[in-house]
């Protein structure tokens, strides 16, 4: 998973007017030109965390205004619950599979780029230059109305929207671990920050005896997180 700071959006610094001296009256040779005079304006990276938050706020406000059933997920949801402002590489929203077409239409009407990737469990959009995943299957299970109705309405950088409940959020992260996706380093800070808000017995029960989630629970126990 791409870490914060990669693929940063760039903003241009206003350039300095191109000032040139008047032509000399004497036939003296012109002074040597500054080799940097024709270089493009310097580019500065934006705060990627804030850019991701702005995208989350914009998309969340659009979905809320249209009355869609949805919930913020992923690292931005963890931040809304009190986790670190160390966001991952995109914004995640959870919706029901049957709402995918309507949600895509809402985003397109607002001028966002929306497309369908090869994976059949999400659609993707771009907002303020940031990737947005609209997910209708979490940890290989369709997102249901019961999960979205358990979502808590929280302030996300001053915009209120439904956010996955902490137990559902941690389950969605841990149950997704497999031999091909096992990023304990990304999930560990979230588990530590939200540990007192999570029903860990329910998360264990929902994960069953899958080996990768079991390894993560062992790590949490050794670190005294749970």
UniProtKB/TrEMBL annotation:
Annotated region described as Disordered, given as residue ranges: 1-43
Biased composition (Pro residues): 24-34
Annotated transmembrane regions: none
UniProt-listed Pfam families: NTP_transf_5 (PF14907)
InterPro entries per record: NT_sf, NTP_transf_5
Superkingdom to which the source organism belongs: Bacteria
Protein name in the entry: Nucleotidyltransferase family protein
Organism: Streptomyces olindensis
Organism placement in taxonomy: Bacteria, Bacillati, Actinomycetota, Actinomycetes, Kitasatosporales
